């Protein structure tokens, strides 16, 4: 679905240059969870921004379904982002004066999905009992469930998750990872950026990055199930 071919990203600030990514290659496939694992400063966010169409590589190519997107115009990249990509962040980004149900319904409506789907989404993330609560009445794990439901309202081909459990305890994190894993299907690839090596075995593919380079790629035919 996505091929990353020899991409590099150099940030230039006046006379100083930062080589955030150096000649990275990997593939993202539907029906798989790809984990991008690396320490702080290794280039994970830069990779995610390029995958999400928020940034372009300095050199190299990104293909989406065989189409070169890394040279697209801003408006074409925005269209790609709106149509193809769902985002889940570390800090949820919920609308605080809307209920759980309303947060999800707005996303479903913006994405042109029928309203019935809201119930399916709420059920999928296990928040039936919380649907009329406001974000400040929820636990961190519950807030992340809302954010995931909202991202899934788009039925995105690519679900990009940036440290989705960075603010959660380890047991809650495992549940959230399991939920994200259940979002992968024939049409949807899930990509999770994390520095948490402990959770990496839940992925179908683990891309290790270090100092802006891919140090290894592990294909994991028997991903860990957590409960
Ligand atoms: P990670 O997400 O793994 O923490 P990043 O992709 O944010 O890593 O950063 C990779 C490298 O690029 C780091 O050295 C970081 O300081 C640098 N970097 C990131 N964004 C910028 C920017 N806008 N300008 C300059 N350097 C940046
Ligand atoms: P809008 O349709 O409001 O103009 P944007 O084009 O800014 O939206 O964003 C499209 C999608 O990209 C949205 O789903 C948004 O959540 C996501 N997005 C925008 N900016 C960022 C960012 N800096 N990092 C991650 N995701 C972003």
Q: What are the defining features of this structure?
A:
globular, four-stranded antiparallel sheet, binds adenosine-5'-diphosphate
Task: Describe the fold and architecture.
This protein is an alpha/beta fold and 227 residues long. Helix content is 29%, strand content 29%. It has helices at 44-51, 74-84, 100-110, 116-124, 140-152, 170-182; strands at 2-13, 16-28, 33-37, 59-64, 67-68, 85-88, 158-162, 189-194, 205-210, 213-219. A 6-stranded mixed sheet has the order 6-7-8-3-9-10, sandwiched between helices. Strands 2-1-4-5 form a 4-stranded antiparallel sheet, with helices on one face. Strand 4 and strand 5 form a beta hairpin. Helix 5 packs parallel to helix 6 (170-182). It is globular. The model has no long low-confidence stretch (mean pLDDT 94). The site of one adenosine-5'-diphosphate has 6 residues, from helix 2.
Brief characterization of the structure:
This protein has 227 residues and is of the alpha/beta class. The chain is 29% helix and 29% strand.
């Amino acid at each position: 679905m996505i091929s990353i071919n020899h991409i590099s990203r150099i940030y230039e600030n006046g006379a100083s240059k930062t080589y955030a990514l150096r000649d990275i290659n990997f593939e993202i496939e539907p029906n798989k969870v790809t984990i991008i694992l690396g320490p702080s400063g290794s280039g994970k966010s830069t990779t995610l921004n390029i995958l999400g169409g928020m940034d372009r590589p300095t050199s190299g190519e990104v293909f989406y379904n065989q189409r070169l997107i890394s040279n697209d115009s801003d408006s074409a990249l925005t269209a790609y982002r709106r149509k193809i990509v769902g985002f889940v962040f570390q800090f949820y980004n919920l609308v605080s004066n809307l209920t759980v149900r309303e947060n999800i319904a707005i996303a479903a409506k913006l994405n042109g999905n029928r309203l019935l789907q809201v119930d399916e989404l709420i059920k999928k993330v296990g928040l039936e009992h919380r649907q009329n609560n406001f974000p400040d009445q929820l636990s961190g794990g519950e807030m992340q469930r809302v954010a995931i439901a909202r991202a899934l309202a788009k039925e995105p081909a690519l679900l990009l998750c940036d440290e989705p459990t960075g603010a959660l305890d380890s047991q809650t994190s495992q549940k959230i990872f399991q939920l994200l894993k259940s979002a992968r299907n024939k049409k949807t690839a899930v990509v999770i950026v994390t520095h948490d090596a402990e959770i990496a075995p839940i992925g179908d593919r683990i891309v290790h990055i270090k100092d802006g380079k891919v140090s290894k790629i592990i294909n994991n035919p028997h991903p860990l199930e957590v409960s």
